[in-house]
Every structure is written in structure tokens, then in C-alpha cells.
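Chapter summary example.
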Amino acid sequence: MGRVGVELPGLANRFDTFVFDMDGVIYRGRRALPHATEVLNLLQESGRQVLFLTNNSGATREQYAERLRAMGVNAHPKQFITSAWATALYLQRALNPKARLFVVGELGLREELLHAGFEIVEQVEPETPAAVVVGIDRAFTYERLAQAQHAILSGARFVATNTDGSYPAEDRLLPGAGAMVAAIAAASGKQPTVIGKPNPQILQPFIERGAIHPERTLLIGDRLDTDIALANALHIPCALVLTGVATRADVATAPLEQLPQWVLNHLGELLGDAVENLLVHGL
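The structure predicted for these 283 residues follows.
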């Protein structure tokens, strides 16, 4: 992508493409975070490419687009890269077509796997499924844990959408998919193949086909161990926003591979000191 025509103030003017995490960056729960809606729309109106990258496997790309549109953001499903979608793509390469899967996860993960042609089973006996696929599951039970354990010990692959231990809701942190993954890993004694951030493979295909040029892209996230680690692994400039999980104190003690180039109090700071005037009057 070449240099865009519309100039912007602040950090945003340095980049043509923006990759945003969502939980803790754009919203917390159902509540949009300060300036998020306005900034996202202004970036798109200026001609920038805006993509959304989430480890949360609870919804489909279509459902995430609907959620952002309900907040006033101009969003299309093709802009979304989710760990559920990336996991389905990985399994299409790793398994036979229509392979049987045991899924610990919610509707978003299940729909992406079904759309990819897999069969989802609710019992792991008498025929062991090809893989146990684990994402966030807010109805996780001991019975599901026991079935996942048995399938993995019987030879099923163990695949996780992500290992985030928590995610930010409106007023507190809640357990993430990593809590379910850790329970199944402890029960089975096996470690999963992890598809989501910080695994570079979640963005590598977009870089290889030229949809993302690392030197002209800014990745914005709220977690050092996933968002910022991913960006640094791919040599993509990155900014940490302090509206989600990580704090300034975390940055001070972070290892080198998890250090962001910029730290923002909120997304409005992408547009520098002129943000308030821009949000009122537009471009």
C-alpha cells in the first residue's frame, strides 16, 4: 500500500495500516472505550486500512462486525482475524477433510469449524476424535474436562485457540481461554499447539501476500505477552494502550521482546494533541 493522501496528526500519520486488538482496546464487554469509535472511523475515512485481531474465539467474524457496527464503527467481517478462524484454517491443513473434533468452546469457534467442513462430536467414545480444540467456554464443566482428557490420552491432537489467562470485562477481569487450556493440560499431561497470539502464524499469511507491510503497519493491543510479543516477533511497530490488561508498571518490568514502542492512555492519543478537536470537527 502506498502513502495515503489524507494527512493525520500525531502517531497515526506514520502508518498506512492499523491492526487493533479488541477486548480492552476498543471495548470492555459491551461498552466502547473512550474515543475508540471516533478514532476507528476517522482512520478509515482517511484511507487507512484497519484490521481487527482478537484471540477471543467466542464469536464469529460476522458477529464481531455486528458488535462494532452497533457501537457506531464502520466494520466488515473481512476486516477481522480471529483465533477461531485461524484455528479452522490451521486444522484444514493439518487434518483430513471432515475430520471429527471434540470442541471445548462457544458458538463462534464451533461455527468457524463447521464452516471449514469439520464434524463436531459431543462424545469421545467409542471413536477417538482427530483433535480436541479448546477456546473460551463460559459453560466449561468437569465432564467436558474429563472427556477432553480421555480423548487426548487416547491420541487426539490438542489444539488451543489461545492461552490468554484473562480478558477485560466492563469493570473487572474475567477468566480467559487459558484457564480451560491449563485445566486440560494439567489433566492430560500434554501441551497444546497454540494458534492465536503471540504465534506469528496468525498474521504471517497476510504479510506473505502483501496485505500487511510490517514497516507501514501499527499494531495496537492491551497485553504485553500476546499483542506486543506478536508485533515484535514480526518486526511490526506496536503501541500498548492502557485501557485493558497491562499497566505502566508491567511495562517497566517487561522483557525486551514484550516492550512496546509507544504507550497510550487511550486510543485518542493515536491522533496526538489535536485529538479532542478532531473528534469534534472531523477531518
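To summarize the output: The chain has ten helices and 15 strands.
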